[in-house]
Every structure is written in structure tokens, then in C-alpha cells.
Specification:
The protein has 386 residues and is α/β, with parallel strands linked by helices. Helix content is 46%, strand content 10%. It is built from 14 helices and 8 strands. The strands form 2 sheets. The chain has a 6-stranded parallel beta sheet with strand order 1-8-5-4-2-3, with helices on both faces. It is globular and about 65 Å long. The two termini are 37 Å apart.
């Protein structure tokens, strides 16, 4: 197992009724910007709960943050923050609202010429200060409530890029599983697959003698496989909703990735499908992952076989037969919760494959746990999904 440093300072308020406690976590002497998405919090009662819990605080609002939050929209919020002297942010929504708010927090204090450099030049630009954030999460999926990661979509250039910094980790996050009761099937399915593949990115690499991390990861995968369908079948099943919500948080709060190699090629390639075609984030991952598993079967052989045995009980057959069955089982699980897994399922033309490969060529970097997946390999991965 590799050396590592781990610190996660996010305070979690988990369970029913926890939204009522946010007043004790918010500063009473700050001007707070409440951010949200398309307005679902007005329909499901979350907005009313937040407003009731924050009576007497100095709060203004900014809504309309999109799924795959748009840089252009977020910059409008940055201007509002500067104009109004906002010094605390409270996103209420899913991972996109929180990701977008993290960018607002960093961009509002950015001292460079172009805030887009936070994402576009992440290797050179380090975010060391940001406006403090608290969070109320309404959709289990991204794990953004307990990490410093953010992914932003710039519509004008068809780019989807990420940044990360401890400075944008929430000071607290409220996770009330009852928010799941009103979610549509599409969002629940997306959350299940998103969390599942977050785990896979930190697990399906190569062995480094880290049995505890492997078992943590496998435990989350099993829980998502068992509890996700229960949530889809009965949205009012509180216990399954709670298990699903905590699994999504644990999938990407840093713990299971400590001391082990991490991949993230599925995400990096999937982001391009969102940038070019607006496909839901989780669905891009479900498209790309089977291609990664197929094309990289030699490099990932040991962990693919372990994954097949421990997650899907695959113990018989040749190496390739067992890997093929592990891939098929993974695809079947995604499709069982309503997520299609090929490019034609989303009307993505073959020329997009070349466009994405060319974009990686232009950027001049490779991805994967060994940084050895370049344009040629990406072409093959996506061609596998045609």
C-alpha cells in the first residue's frame, strides 16, 4: 500500500430532520448566498425547510444552476457575490449545485485574469482560498458533499473540466435521506451508477496489497447493488434511501482511495460526451466503463478477476471468459436500473469518437492509473461502445 495523507474536515449531519439544525452551523454575522438549481426544492418542500431553519439570517438567493453546471451561469453568481459582499455560500441541491457553488467560492476570490484557469490550468493554478461553504444535499450521487472536487461545463467552448482544492470542502453537509422520496427514477438511477463508478475508479486498477481498502470498496459496491433497486422500487423506503445516500458519500470522500492507485479515465472520457452531446454525467460513465474494462483487460486483469469473483461470484472459466462475464454483469446491472450503455443508445455519431480522441491529442496528456491511455487507446475504448 502506498504512503498517504488523509484529512476530511467535513461535518456530516445525517438523517431525517437534520435540515432544521443548519442554523447552528451557519454564521450569524455573514451575508449568505443560497444557491440552487432548476427549482425542484420549491416542489419537494426542501426550500421551505431551509428558509424556516435560517430565519433571521442575512440571506440572498441565486437559482438556475444547471446539471453539469455552466461556467457562464456561475460567473453571473460570482458577480452577484462581489456586488452584494457575500461571505458565505449555502448550496441546496444535488452535486451539480454544490460543484457549481464550489467554483463560485473559488472564482470570487481568484486573483488571476481568467477564472476559467481554475479548471483549464489546474496543474498550475492552485486554489488556496475560497468563500466558506455549507451544503444541503438533495440527490445522492457525486459525493461532492464530503470532498473538495468540482466539475464545470463551459458551453461556449464545449469543454467540461474539473478542479479540486481543500479550500472548497464544505464546512458541513446535511444528508437527509427523505429528500430521495420525491426524486424521479432518472435521478435515482443516475445516482446509483455515478456512485458505483466512483468506487470502480479507485478499485479497478492493479493490486498494491491493500485488502482493507479493497473490502471497503467492495462493501460499497455490494450495498449499491442491493439497496439501489430497492429505492427505485419504493421511493418511501427510508432505510434503503439512507443506505444508498451514505454509500454515495463514502464512494468519494477520499477514504477508499487512500494508499491505492486511482484511474479516473472513465470520467475524463465521459466528460467529453457531456461536453459535446449534453448526456447525463452518470450515463456517460456507464457508456465508457465497459469499454475501459474490455480494452484494458490485460493491464487490469488481477483486479478484474477479483471484482468478478467478489462482486458477481464469477469463479469458473478461462481468464477472458471470467472478465467477459464480469463486464456483462456490470452492463446488466446498469441496464437493470434504466441506464443504457452504448453510444447509439444516445444517438452519438461515430465521428464523435474521433473528435474526442483528437481533443486528447491536442491537450497532450494521457489518463488512467498508469497515465498510459492516450488518443489511440481512447479511440479503441469508444469504438467498443458503438
Amino acid at each position: 500500500m502506498y504512503n498517504f495523507e488523509f484529512k476530511n474536515p467535513v461535518k456530516i449531519l445525517f438523517g431525517k430532520g437534520q435540515i432544521a439544525k443548519i442554523a447552528a452551523e451557519l454564521p450569524r454575522d455573514k451575508k449568505i448566498l443560497l444557491t440552487y438549481g432548476g427549482g425542484s426544492i420549491f416542489k419537494n418542500g426542501i426550500y421551505d425547510q431551509v428558509k424556516a431553519a435560517t430565519q433571521g439570517l442575512d440571506i440572498i438567493e441565486f437559482g438556475g444552476i444547471e446539471p453539469n453546471p455552466h461556467y457562464e451561469t456561475l460567473m453571473q453568481a460570482v458577480e452577484l457575490v462581489k456586488k452584494e459582499g457575500v461571505d458565505y455560500l449555502l448550496p441546496v441541491g444535488g452535486g451539480s449545485v454544490l460543484d457549481g457553488t464550489k467554483f463560485i467560492a473559488a472564482a470570487a476570490l481568484f486573483e488571476g485574469d481568467d477564472p476559467w484557469d481554475i479548471c483549464a490550468k489546474r496543474s498550475q493554478v492552485k486554489v488556496e482560498k475560497a468563500i466558506p461553504i455549507g451544503a444541503v444535499i438533495t440527490l445522492p450521487a457525486t459525493g461532492s458533499e464530503m470532498n473538495g472536487n468540482s466539475v464545470i461545463n463551459r458551453v461556449s467552448t464545449q469543454e467540461k473540466l474539473a478542479f479540486d482544492s481543500p479550500a472548497v470542502m464544505p464546512q458541513f453537509s446535511v444528508l437527509d435521506p427523505e429528500v430521495i422520496f420525491s426524486l424521479p427514477d432518472r435521478q435515482v438511477a443516475n445516482g446509483i451508477v455515478d456512485a458505483f463508478i466512483h468506487v470502480i475508479e479507485q478499485y479497478l486498477t492493479f493490486p498494491v496489497n491493500s485488502p482493507l481498502q479493497d473490502r471497503f470498496a467492495e462493501g460499497i459496491l455490494h450495498t449499491l447493488i442491493e439497496e439501489g433497486p430497492k429505492v427505485l422500487a419504493n421511493r418511501n423506503d427510508y432505510e434503503s434511501a439512507a443506505n444508498f445516500m451514505w454509500s454515495a458519500t463514502m464512494a468519494l470522500n477520499g477514504l477508499i482511495g487512500m494508499g491505492v492507485p486511482q484511474d479516473w479515465a472513465t470520467h475524463m472520457i465521459g466528460h467529453e460526451l457531456t461536453a459535446y452531446h449534453g448526456i447525463d454525467h452518470a450515463r456517460t460513465l456507464a457508456i465508457v466503463l465497459p469499454g475501459i474494462m474490455h480494452i484494458r483487460r490485460k493491464e487490469k486483469q488481477a483486479k478484474l478477476l477479483q471484482y468478478g469473483e467478489r462482486i458477481w461470484n464469477i469463479t469458473e472459466g478461462t481468464v477472458d471468459e471470467r472478465i467477459d462475464l464480469a463486464i456483462a454483469k456490470t452492463i446488466a446491472f446498469f441496464e437493470s436500473v434504466g441506464i443504457k450503455t452504448t453510444l447509439p443508445d444516445y444517438d452519438v455519431p461515430a465521428e464523435t469518437v474521433t473528435r474526442i480522441a483528437n481533443r486528447f491529442e491536442q491537450r497532450g496528456f494521457k489518463v488512467g492509473e498508469k497515465a498510459d491511455i492516450g488518443p489511440k487507446e481512447i479511440q479503441h475504448i469508444l469504438e467498443n461502445r458503438l
